[in-house]
Amino acid sequence: MTNKPRLGVFSVTGCFGCQLTLAFVEDILLELLDKFEIAAFPMLKQENSYENLDIAIIEGSACRQEEIEELKKIRNNSKIVVALGACANSGSVQSIIEVSDKKQVMETVYNKKYKQYNPVEVGGIDKHIKVDFHIYGCPPDKEDLLLFIKQLLAGNIKPKQVDYNVCVECRAKANPCLLQEGKFCVGALTHGGCNALCPTNGHYCFGCHGYWEDSNVEALTELFKEYGFDKQLKNILAKFDCTSKQIKQIVK
Amino acid sequence: MKTVKLDHITKIEGHAKLHLVIDNNKIKKLKLGAFEGARYFEGLIVGRKQHDVPIITSRICGICSCIHVTASVQAVEAAFGIKASQQTKKLRELMVIGERIRSHASHLYLFALPDYLGFESSIAMAPKHKKEVNQALELIKLGNNIVTTIGAREMHPVATVPGGFTALPKQEELSNLLKRLKQQRKQAISTAKLFASLDYPEFENKTQYLALDDNGYSNISGNIVSQDQKINSDDYLKHITEKIIEYSTAKFSTLNKKPFMVGSLARLNNHFNTVSKDTQKLIEKFDLQFPIHNPFYNNLCQALEMVHHFDEATEILENLKIKPEQPAELKNKSGRGVSAVEAPRGLLFHDYTFENGKIKHANIITPTAQNLNNLEFDLWKYVPALLKLSEPELKFEIEKLIRAYDPCFSCSAHFLQLKLER
Question: What superfamily does domain B41-412 belong to in CATH?
Answer without folding.
Answer: Cytochrome-c3 Hydrogenase, chain B (1.10.645.10)
